[in-house]
Amino acid sequence: MGSELEDPVRRQRMVFERDGNVLRADVWTRPGGDVPAHFHPSQRERFKVVSGSVEFQVGGRRLQAEAGDEVVADPGVRHAFKNNGRVDALVKVEVEPALDLQGFLEEAAALARAGKYTQRGIPRGIRAAAELADLMERYSHVTVMAFPPLFVQRRVLPLLARAARRRS
């Protein structure tokens, strides 16, 4: 068994395992839990629903996935998912190349546990906004969030990220 983390904002528990250049994760998502819209510039992400009911959005398409269904998001394709069922869902995720996606998820979950942002991704204050901007900027080669819009990310995030680094 690999390393485990809890994300109370996303309503998920994840267990990671690294196999060379592949990151695998078992993701248990409670009803209403989600992964917000994002894309990976150079990684392919595969999802296999083991149990429960999960709605995916991949490249503008909505896909309802049940146990046994698989969904793939190619590099650069915007995707998201939500457990829209009444019971926990288990999704096996495989990301290749792994890069440092696990580090991004661990840091995002730590900010979630610290109460820094809402489920809609809204920071709880200016300091939280600066910390989230720093996270998003440092991991932009791995994950790019769909919110805020890219033009805002390119102009505002570097300024907020510098402010966060000065405070540390």
CA radius of gyration: 15 Å
Mean pLDDT: 92
Return the string of H and E elements: EEEEEEEEEEHHEH
Low-confidence stretches: none
* CATH third-tier fold name of the largest domain: Jelly Rolls
The strand line-up of the biggest sheet is 1-2-3-10-5-8
Count every helix, treating DSSP H or I runs of 4 or more residues as helices: 3
Oligomer: single chain
Helix content: 25-40%
Number of strands: 11
CATH architecture verdict of the largest domain: Sandwich
Please give the CATH class of the largest domain: Mainly Beta
Strand proportion, as a percent range, falls in 35-45%
What does this structure look like?
The chain contains three helices and eleven strands. Strand 1 and strand 2 form a beta hairpin. With 168 residues, it is of the alpha+beta class. The model has no long low-confidence stretch (mean pLDDT 92). It has two domains: 4-96, Sandwich (Jelly Rolls), CATH 2.60.120.10; 101-167, no CATH class. It has helices spanning 101-113, 126-138, 150-167, and strands spanning 4-7, 12-19, 22-29, 34-39, 44-51, 53-58, 61-66, 70-73, 79-83, 89-96, 144-145. The strands form two sheets. The protein has a six-stranded antiparallel β-sheet, with helices on one face. A five-stranded antiparallel β-sheet has the order 7-6-9-4-11, with no helix packed on it. Helix 1 (101-113) packs antiparallel against helix 2 and helix 2 crosses helix 3 (150-167).
